[in-house]
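User: Predict the structure for this protein chain, please.
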Amino acid sequence: MTSRADFDTRLREAQELNAASRVRPASRAYRSLLRDVGPLDPRVHGAWVVELRVRSLVGEGSCVYSLTGDVDAAKRLIAEARHVASEADDPALVAVTHGQEGLLHVRSGDAVAAIDAFDRALATAAPDNQRDLAVLHINRAAAALDIGDHGAVVQDLERALRYARAIGNDRYVAFATQNLGWARYRQGDFPAALRELEEAAALQPGGVDGWSELARAQVLLDAGLVTEAERILAGSVPLLAEEGLGAERADALLSRARCALMLKHPADAAGWAEKARRAFERMGNEPWTLQARVAGLEARLAVDRDSGSVRRSTLRRRCEEALAVARTGDDLVAVSHGTALVARLLAAEWALLAGDPEHAAVIVTDTTRQLRRDHPLPLRVHHQSVLAQVAFANGDRRRGLAAVRRGHGVLADHRAGLGSVDVVTAAASYGVRLALVDVEAALATGSARAVLDATERGRATFAGTVRVRPAQDPELAEMLAEARRRAEEARQLVTSQDAADVQEGVRLQREVRRLQELARQRSWQLGGADQELAPRPATARETVARLALAAPGATVVSYLLTETVTAIRVDARGVRLVELCPLRDVTELARRVRQDFDVLANRLIPAPMRQVAAASAHRSLGRLDELLLEPLGVEGPLDVAARGGLLSLPWSSLPSRAGRSTRVHSWVDLREPRSDPGRRGALVVGGPDLESVERESGLVAGEWDDALLLAGAEATCAATTAALPGAAVVHVAAHGVHEPDNPLFSCVRLADGPLYAHELDGVDLSGVVVVLSACEVGRASVRLGGEPLGMTSVLLRLGARAVVAAVAPLRDDVAARVMPRLHVALREGQDPAVALALAVGLEPEPVPLVCFGPLVGSL
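Assistant: Here is the predicted structure, written as structure tokens:
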């Protein structure tokens, strides 16, 4: 006969399998227990038989719901367990059934009923059964989170952690920690949320499971790190299916639909949303079925918005369909996560597309009352975007602008909780639609001033300084140091003549990419944003007033990119809007210039061929000048504000800019440059393997009375970063690489390996002029939300007064001639943009150096 100890062991194993999301083997184990305990009479064998039966029944009920989504079948098993417990007159076991009933309510979408069930369970639970108490508090916290009771969430999870730690159950500690991470996110603390989720993943026995990966992906998605979330979800969906977690798998499908919407793939989004809808429907989870329907509506709206050819009758029908979904959601308001609100916003947008702004206004009348502060960031921004669209369409510009400003306020509040430049720029993706609505409404007024104001409102929200105090995270520092060591080893091996060395070098390169990604993820967990340094959008009035105090003829040109390039020209006399040319023409010319610079930078190419490339570059640059500047009549100092490919154009090499100050930035920054009186002199750093680096570094250092020269073996990454806080001017002559796919790992190569843009995040560069005599590190990659990211953009966000950098390969003999002249001008007090114009003026070939930095604030 099987002993009680054997049965207890089998029960614990089944429970652990279920807790580890191994639902199918857990279900087999519970059924086996029920089969074997069935013949046993409690009057003969003892009360433990009743407990075993009850716990096996509720465990099997959990498995049945996870595997089939059959709520009724799960309820029948729980009811049977409660009957057994009641017949035995055991309140503690009755509590177990109430707890399982509560969990079933959570998973099927009724959080209010769930909390009631958990309260009943806790009222009669055995006070010495810390395992049951830990589980009950974890599950009640999940229900409280659904209704937005964050105080109860944190209180329950802290109690759960106390019970789980007391019995040494790492799995329950992991569950509670993970849920606490999700609660931190819902409270708006993104770095803390990721820290909790990482800690929870590390605690999971057996490694990361699909459920924890799903939680992490959802936090990343709501923060704007969409491609990263999609990558995790793509791996978690099959993992969740393998683990038998039907509800969580459906949740992952829904999250994939949201990713596809953000990535502008509405057809894919519709497909994922429909799969999620069918899965939730099978489970009887009405609130989440409704969420999946709404995601499908969002995908359809995206297609209709882009089409422009959908019949009005169809648009009106879809508006009514969205309203019907909203009315269904009204009955589930306590647990719908804003589903009814989202559906109404979509209905209003369809009404606008159908040309009925009055109906749209009626639809959104009560939406503000439905909005909660703990609703996800995308919903809160979407809400203000739709309010703005409706107001603008009804001719109420004042109310529309108020909604736009509230939307940017929501985004600014979110930014305040961030630190990493990576996360700040990623979060801009949720401001794209709001900014577009603002600019389109401004263009409709025909006012150039209104267009500039709208453009800068959108750009300023995520521009400018982020974390300005060192993060002091030893783990991150070690990851970056290890990535540097491996990168240097790989660089030396891949050029070997030995096939085995090359193969090892390739392996090391993969390891470098892995370490870089780990470091990047670690940086997301670090706060440190400084709200006092958050950017404020420039206005047309302020810009005109500032230009009146600037050098004679100073002009700001802000470029808008659609299919057409449009310029907003600002000088001391006013603001003018000029439509210039098709964007494709500029893109093609920029591609040709880039190819010509590649040829010019290669000293192995014969001089006659380089002369041909120089002539070609001059022609293309001349044509760009004709398209982008000639119609604007700019003759004096020029400040360019641009996004996309225009940000990486060699503006200083355009013919009309010869000998003239030209400065480039991604937004109009009117802040006075920050300065640090403790900075003095120059830091000059010379990297390895450049033919003229010693000569260039020596000449540059020689132009300054107070210069620290780091060359040869002394030019390490640690020595360079340690010296940065004391220098007023920093010059780095080294090989440079812009990484388009991972721009924060753009780098300059020093004596001990690459110095990454990523590891400068947190260094205060207030008022410093940085000169990067390195190939292409002036280039930037554009994030999903339009924010540029690369070595130069990081330096500017850290407070640099100006960054002189190359947007294409720069030949070292050209650098050796130009750079000393640049520093002579800087030493004499010239503005960096003026200094660059003077330095390149004597070169017969175009030079791809650009002065990046705050615009009018430096004139």
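Residues 474-525 form one domain.
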